[in-house]
Write a structure and sequence with these properties.
mainly alpha
């Protein structure tokens, strides 16, 4: 068993369940914000706010190009932060309210000209992404300084996924359409819903930031902005895992982006989306619950690969299900949705391990830069997935609230099924090159401890 160190240079005690729960609540808070954006913002922009799918695609891509600068810079800032509350916690509890005020701005419909609406959408969405990074990156980085135990990290990841995907996504995916239907206009409904989630999200993030503790203390690393590139690109395990994150994110972002269009225009009833997700949530719950048992026997990487292969096969099968076979459509979707949880849980349990790998490989310990790069690839996946869906719909002649052309209908069907299947297969292949699991990680921790001991002796 490896001996990891606290700020008093003694072996850390195992995390209490309440400590894991308190920290994980922050993911629920951030996902009330994140999931509302990822599920409904594209639809809100085209069918409520009134800008074209082409503008939406451009917006998503421009925002992520800026993140290529913003995310590593935020990682550098977080790594070099020193306060009496810790390095990462202040960003979580001080950034919660600004983040959610920007959520309200994104789901507002100001009375301005069409051209100014495009400008407004660009400004609010890009600034929201910047503040989300300023909160989400430090929050994710805390997972590397709460514990170095792989099983505890897996447990934290499991609970985070349960709260964010099952609870958070459950409320948003099932409750959004019925809630909005109570209002005279979709614009009023979306703003009211965003207001509720903004309050809850802020409260949960503030609570998690205050209650969590940064227990793993290492000597401050002195590195400069120019070191960001080698910190990232000499960490091959981080690069492989980040590519898998990008591909995995594209799976669900493409599906979520066109999901409401699929139910509204292909199945003929937008309210079926809420019915659909009533079945997906139990499947997600099962996937989250069984993942730790599978990883204990197979390892995180292998479980992740298994999940992606199941998603690929089942999503391909779903493509050939007729629209009137809703039961079979739901059954296959439940299998794919449960398998998606294998990746969702495993990837967040794997990324803190790349911090120690990077320290072992490069001689520089940084939580903010590796996890910042990982979060950047998540947002790249969101951008590419969302932009791809929006571009294809624009190219195939999609016009909101009209009868779709045959080409536009086919595009939505392919985007909902075949494109995610392709991303899932690519993700599984990528993960075959990831080697940081089990014995190798334990050896890396032992090597780092030996190096630290030699430094103290000298």
């Amino acid at each position: 068993m490896c001996a990891y160190r606290s700020r008093r240079d003694v072996e850390l005690k195992p995390l209490k369940k309440i400590e894991i729960f308190n920290y994980s609540l922050g993911d629920l808070g951030s996902n009330f914000n994140f999931q509302l954006i990822s599920f409904f913002l594209a639809y809100f922009y085209t069918d409520v706010f009134g800008i074209s799918a082409g503008h939406v695609a451009g917006l998503f891509l421009v925002a992520r190009i800026w993140d290529g600068v913003n995310d590593p810079l935020m990682g550098y800032i977080a790594d070099h932060t020193r306060t009496r509350w810790g390095r990462f916690r202040p960003y979580v509890f001080f950034g919660a309210v600004p983040l959610n005020l920007l959520l309200l701005a994104c789901f507002s419909v100001p009375d301005i000209s069409p051209s100014m609406k495009v400008v407004y959408a660009y400004f609010t969405y890009i600034v929201h992404g910047m503040v989300f990074t300023a909160v989400g990156l430090p929050y994710a980085s805390m997972s590397a300084v709460i514990t170095q135990d792989q099983q505890e990290r897996a447990l934290i990841s499991t609970l985070r996924m349960f709260l964010s995907v099952i609870v958070g996504m459950g409320f948003i995916s099932i409750g959004t359409r019925p809630f909005i239907a109570k209002f005279e206009s979709e614009a009023d409904g979306f703003f009211a819903l965003a207001s509720i989630y903004a309050v809850v999200s802020s409260a949960l993030l503030i609570f998690a930031g205050i209650k969590s503790k940064e227990r793993v203390e290492v000597p401050p690393e002195k590195y400069h902005l120019k070191d960001i590139i080698p910190i990232v690109f000499r960490n091959k395990e981080l690069l492989i895992l980040s590519l898998s994150m990008f591909l995995n994110t594209c799976i669900w972002v493409v599906g979520n982006t066109v999901g409401l269009y699929y139910f509204k225009y292909i199945l003929g009833d937008a309210d079926l989306q809420s019915v659909f997700f009533r079945y997906m949530l139990p499947a997600n719950g099962i996937g989250v619950v069984i993942t730790p048992f599978l990883t204990a026997r197979m390892g995180k990487r292998n479980v992740y690969i298994l999940g992606m292969l199941i998603v690929c096969v089942v999503t391909l099968m779903r493509h050939f299900v007729p629209p009137d076979s809703f039961g079979l459509f739901v059954t296959l979707s439940m299998i794919a949705s449960g398998a998606m949880m294998f990746g969702a849980v495993c990837q967040w349990g794997m990324v803190p391990d790349t911090v120690e790998y990077g320290q072992w490989k490069n001689g520089i310990r940084s939580e903010g830069i590796p996890i910042g790069f990982f979060c950047f690839t998540l947002k790249c996946g969101m951008a590419v997935g969302g932009a791809l869906a929006a571009m294809v719909m624009s190219w195939t002649g999609y016009v909101a609230n009209t009868e779709l052309t045959g080409v536009a209908r086919t595009a939505i069907i392919w985007l909902f099924n075949l494109v995610p299947a392709g991303f899932a297969l690519a993700c599984a292949i990528t993960l075959c090159f990831y080697k940081l699991d089990g014995p190798k990680y334990k050896q890396i921790l032992a090597d780092l401890e030996a190096r630290a001991g030699k430094k103290q002796e000298s």
